[in-house]
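Postdoc handover notes: sequence design on the structure in folder B. Input tokens:
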């Protein structure tokens, strides 16, 4: 397979509701922004597209991807729709990579959207819950807040994780989003604010949970020949992985922890894995991506991570799946301040940093603060990672606070269901 590069991207502001714009217009706004950022790139350069959106129910429109393709002026070029729950955007990004890596296309558009405000919150949660096993999990109370509350309860039991550590994740991500004009809910919060907000599913409060959103995002991937012809400053997609797990959590087997290159069996001699406290699919996706990108120790070899923090608890769980810290250390990783930006004041006291390498997680604000229009979310992560690695955060956000000093490698992570599809992609500055 040949090298593949991301050459541009665009996003709309993620909002609770955007009734004056339908999904086609939102995608077009993101698409036009991406084209405008690369002089010389036009529709004629794009060989085809992948469209990612989660649910036909929100749009009340089958074949919405075909309608977007037409609205962007890309007919009769090839296109297809990708869907995979919360990982839909990440799967769309990887599908566009495959189209270019295989030689089928020289330049492929990955575009994603969701219009979740078209239904009320209860109905939206019902639609999302259809991504669980509707014959087994769903009839016994299957809204996702319940699933994640159960999983973090087990994590707390196994490892001593606390609600205060979870709350610090919300403090971090909402504070980061104060510098991101595309984010839905930037805010300066305290641990007390998070814990005193309305309880959704014990121990998860409303501020431990991401919000349903309207929004769109696009990423354009291209071959080396296209990069040279356009004279752009690209970012190489150097590693990809995709993991899966059984839909029914009761069907998930126990066994040894799949080790990453920097880990040892002795680290987990007593750990019952994965139980419901960890995501086996996430560990598998990470291992594949690290092997492809030549990463030996992610906490040292990566400069930042944009991960799928649908819940504060799942961010902590994912630190461990990605190998940023050992299983069981996710809470201590937060207490140490390891995933926080060094240049921001979060109003928190940190201790134990000597145990961990600092690696900022969700400098964009993540799903918790940016919002979660499902089909767009993984592509939003790709766009922010691209801007970070280009060093163009100031240009695109009008505020350089979130720009890291000379980042070389970043990771993006999309997660579906209770870990049934998970994608990990590694991007590198050229």
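Designed sequence:
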């Amino acid at each position: 397979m040949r090298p593949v590069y991301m050459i541009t991207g665009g996003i709309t502001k993620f909002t609770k509701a955007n009734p004056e714009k339908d999904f086609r217009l939102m995608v077009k706004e993101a698409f036009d922004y991406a084209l405008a950022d690369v002089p010389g790139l036009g529709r004629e350069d794009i060989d085809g597209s992948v469209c990612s959106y989660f649910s036909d129910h929100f749009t009340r429109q089958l074949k919405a991807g075909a309608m977007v393709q037409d609205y962007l002026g890309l007919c009769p070029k090839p296109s297809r729709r990708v869907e995979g729950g919360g990982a839909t955007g990440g799967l769309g990004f990887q599908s566009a990579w495959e189209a270019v890596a295989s030689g089928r296309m020289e330049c492929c558009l990955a575009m994603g959207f969701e219009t979740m405000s078209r239904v009320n919150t209860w109905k939206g949660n019902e639609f999302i819950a259809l991504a669980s096993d509707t014959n087994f999990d769903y009839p016994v109370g299957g809204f996702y807040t319940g699933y994640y509350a159960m999983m973090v309860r087990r994590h707390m039991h196994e490892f001593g994780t606390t609600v205060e550590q979870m709350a610090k994740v919300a403090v971090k991500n909402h504070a980061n989003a104060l510098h991101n004009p595309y984010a839905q809910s930037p805010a300066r919060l305290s641990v007390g604010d998070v814990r005193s907000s309305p309880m959704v599913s014990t121990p998860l409060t409303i501020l431990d949970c991401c919000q349903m959103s309207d929004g769109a995002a696009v990423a354009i991937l291209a071959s080396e020949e296209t990069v040279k012809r356009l004279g752009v400053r690209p970012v190489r997609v150097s590693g990809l992985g995709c993991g899966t797990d059984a839909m029914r959590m009761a069907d998930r087997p126990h066994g040894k922890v799949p080790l990453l290159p920097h880990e040892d069996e002795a680290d987990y001699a007593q750990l019952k894995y994965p139980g419901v406290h960890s995501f086996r699919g996430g560990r598998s996706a990470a291992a594949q991506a690290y092997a492809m990108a030549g990463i030996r120790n992610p906490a040292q070899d990566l400069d930042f991570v944009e991960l799928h923090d649908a819940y504060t608890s799942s961010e902590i769980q994912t630190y461990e799946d990605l190998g940023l810290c050992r299983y069981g250390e996710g809470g201590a990783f937060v207490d140490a301040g390891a995933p926080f930006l060094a240049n921001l004041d979060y109003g928190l006291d940190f201790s134990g940093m000597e145990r961990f390498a600092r690696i900022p997680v969700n400098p964009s604000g993540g799903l918790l603060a940016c919002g979660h229009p499902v089909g767009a979310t993984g592509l939003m992560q790709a766009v922010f990672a691209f801007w970070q690695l280009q060093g163009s955060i100031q240009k695109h956000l009008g505020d350089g606070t979130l720009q890291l000093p000379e980042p070389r490698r970043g990771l993006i992570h999309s997660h579906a269901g209770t870990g049934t599809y998970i994608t990990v992609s590694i991007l590198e500055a050229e």
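Context for whoever picks this up: The first helix runs from residue 23 to 36. Don't rerun without checking with the PI first.
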